[in-house]
Amino acid sequence: MRLTKFTDLALRAVMRLAVAERGAPLTTREVAEAMDVPYTHMAKAISRLQHLGVVEARRGRGGGLALTTLGHQASVGWLVRELEGEDEVVACEGDTPCPLRAACRLRGALRDAQEAFYATLDPLTVSDVVAAPTGPVLVGLTSRPAG
Q1: Which is nearest to 13 in space by CA: 63, 58, 50, 59?
Q2: Going residue by residue through the chain (147 aa), what tens digit of pLDDT does each one get?
Q3: What is the pTM of this model?
Q4: How many CA atoms lie within 13 A of 54 on its CB side?
Q5: By the 8 A CB rule, do 112 and 120 touch?
């Protein structure tokens, strides 16, 4: 299974925020630059993560982004499900519906494989995936120098 770029970006943002020092919140721009992605893409991902209750954003002096308790404890499987949505692996009912859809056994097998993919991620929390050696690498990601 392949994740959308949006889900990949959101997961990387959550991982970076999971290792941010308390009292030193990051901005959306800093996370975007550390991940080498456009600010607008990161802002959309952060907005979705806020909606899910995973990220908290505070405005003004001393503001920034922080992972919530839910964000630290969230199952990676749950996060991926929420970010990816309910779409199936294949679009049997798309603009040009598949002629096999009424008698296809592949669709069910692919749905089962997708659920097995998520089930593999379910026991992992965000805290698990930022443990060493990943965490120190994430902490080392900073904005690229201008120029």
Answers
A1: 50
A2: 789 999 999 999 999 999 887 667 899 999 999 999 999 999 999 999 999 999 999 887 778 899 999 999 999 999 999 999 888 787 788 788 888 878 888 888 998 999 999 999 999 999 999 888 877 788 777 654 443
A3: 0.85
A4: 29
A5: no
- SS3 state at 63: coil
Which tokens go with 63?
């503001």
Long-range pairs for 43-51 at CB < 8 Å and ≥24 separation?
44/6, 45/6, 45/9, 45/10, 45/13, 46/13, 48/6, 48/10, 48/83, 49/10, 49/13, 49/14
